[in-house]
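stage 2 :: seqdesign
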């Protein structure tokens, strides 16, 4: 059986998960508890209700345009008088949470953000109907305004001005990363053999990207220290001083360790960029930032050098919607690097983007990302689908108007209660860390054994069982699915458990199952010492 486990050592944790699921479901009549994937089982209902109610308004607007037809054919929404018609629509549907939200949202957009109500309603109506190509392709104008306000509030604490940042709506964070890396390569900013630094541990697909044939990059690991609450020691961050490191790529708060970068680390990175490495490109995936207290992105402290990727997937329970944005400061170092490219490469890029503008040399990098996402020639059909953009706006307004952060506190409390429940059933105290966001928890196998039965037992287990073997045995004997920490770049035996995707009572079962297995190991340990 051990040989079978070794066969799977090179698999991504998410591919290994499928093997574990098959193992966990072999025994009929037993509940399989999959704590391996981070898809939440909670979601934001009010902005969805608003979306579906607004769809009825938009449909009525379309039918009104071609009201003489009886074959189910509608026309385009008209902006003249649209605000009055919307007020009547809301009055006819008083008492629905979704329509009350829409009334508040229009007031917020008009009175707090200073956006024209009629243009906003018209953009949302045409957007939700999906009757036009996304225009401009990067993002609908007012959708970018609303979404941008939300993202900058959550990621930077409004320390950056909305008008100083461009956003590109993308199909979730995964698409954002794929587009960014592709455009860095296409524009000569990333070549085979270049060094890319990864903040480790990290979401496992990001470890795989540099090794792909398309890139063949040299990976430099920037290791967070578990003994320093998963923060980056200065000695590790010093690796970023190497001028040959082209990119620093990180997830913040981290996956799988679920810890936000502290201020000292961010300031050290900012110091390195300002004093020694002005050309360093930083890519930060901040999908879990909205679960943190007082979160600040690297985009807030190094805006000129940082490309921000934010996804709506986890916080709003919207993984199926595929909603995300790429954000870049308008005065950014990446555009400066493009202007410094060698003349022959500049000539090639001028030809590449010549169908888009009469001045290709001054085409911003974020607009190159948009074009490259559709092989340039199909740039006019680029962009996130307009109904997706409308739902993203509803999510953004939902949080912008939530002055008491009621939704935020509720979802944070959900995952924190689950963590407390898991560790209580396991019989171990969870580690306290002010920077933890609790979306995942790292079950440090050695530490758990040490807490339960002492250091000698912990060493005994570590010598006799690999992480993979333990995870397969957990799946086989208890039906619980966990993911190996080593697949994310964790250097010691540990397993990642999601605290987002199961109900609270399930975490009692997981904790008890893990404790039962630890007790069985301990009995074997005692027998070996007889």
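stage 2 :: out
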């Amino acid at each position: 059986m051990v040989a079978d486990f070794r066969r799977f050592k090179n698999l991504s944790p998410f591919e290994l998960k499928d093997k574990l699921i098959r193992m966990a479901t072999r025994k009929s009549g037993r509940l399989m508890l999959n704590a391996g994937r981070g898809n939440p089982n909670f979601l934001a209902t009010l902005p969805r209700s608003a979306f579906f109610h607004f769809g009825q308004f938009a449909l009525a607007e379309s039918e009104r345009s071609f009201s003489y037809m009886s074959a189910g054919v509608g026309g385009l929404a008209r902006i003249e008088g649209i605000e009055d018609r919307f007020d009547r629509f809301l009055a006819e549907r008083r008492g629905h949470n979704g329509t009350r939200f829409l009334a508040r949202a229009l007031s917020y957009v008009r009175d707090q953000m200073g956006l024209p109500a009629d243009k906003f309603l018209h953009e949302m109506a045409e957007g939700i109907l999906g009757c036009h190509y996304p225009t401009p392709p990067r993002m609908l104008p007012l959708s970018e305004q609303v979404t941008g306000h939300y993202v900058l509030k959550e990621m930077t604490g409004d320390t950056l001005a909305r008008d100083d940042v461009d956003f590109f709506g993308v199909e979730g964070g995964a698409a954002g990363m794929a587009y960014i890396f592709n455009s860095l390569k296409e524009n000569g900013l990333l070549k085979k053999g270049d060094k890319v630094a990864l903040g480790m541990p990290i979401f496992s697909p990001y470890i795989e990207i540099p090794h792909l044939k398309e890139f063949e990059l040299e990976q430099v690991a920037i290791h967070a220290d578990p003994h320093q609450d998963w923060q980056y020691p200065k000695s590790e961050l010093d690796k970023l001083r190497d001028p040959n490191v082209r990119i620093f790529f990180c997830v913040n708060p981290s996956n799988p360790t679920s810890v936000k970068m502290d201020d000292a680390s961010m300031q050290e990175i900012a110091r390195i960029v300002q004093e020694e490495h002005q050309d360093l490109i930083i890519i930060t995936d901040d999908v879990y930032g909205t679960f943190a207290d007082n979160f600040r992105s690297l985009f807030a402290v190094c805006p000129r050098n940082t490309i921000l990727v934010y996804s709506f997937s986890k916080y709003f329970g919207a993984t199926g919607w595929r909603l995300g944005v790429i954000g870049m400061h308008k005065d950014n170092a990446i555009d400066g690097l493009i202007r410094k490219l060698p003349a022959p490469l500049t000539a090639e890029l001028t030809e590449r983007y010549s169908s888009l503008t009469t001045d290709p040399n001054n085409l911003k990098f974020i607009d190159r990302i948009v074009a490259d996402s559709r092989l340039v020639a199909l740039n006019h059909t680029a962009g996130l689908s307009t109904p997706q953009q409308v739902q993203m706006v509803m999510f953004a307004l939902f949080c912008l108007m939530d002055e008491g952060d009621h939704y935020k506190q509720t979802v944070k409390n959900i995952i924190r209660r689950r963590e407390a429940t898991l560790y209580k059933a396991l019989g171990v105290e969870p580690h306290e860390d002010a920077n933890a966001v609790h979306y995942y928890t790292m079950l440090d196998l050695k530490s758990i054994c040490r807490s339960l039965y002492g250091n000698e037992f912990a060493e005994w287990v570590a010598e006799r069982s690999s992480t993979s073997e333990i995870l397969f045995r957990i799946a086989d004997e208890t039906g619980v699915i966990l993911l190996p920490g080593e697949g994310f770049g964790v250097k010691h035996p540990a397993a990642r458990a999601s605290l987002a995707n199961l109900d609270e009572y399930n975490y009692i079962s997981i904790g008890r199952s893990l404790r039962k297995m630890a007790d069985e190991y301990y009995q074997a340990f005692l027998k070996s010492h007889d």
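stage 3 :: structure notes
- The longest strand covers residues 245-251.
- Residues 46-129 form a domain with the Histone, subunit A fold (CATH 1.10.20.110).
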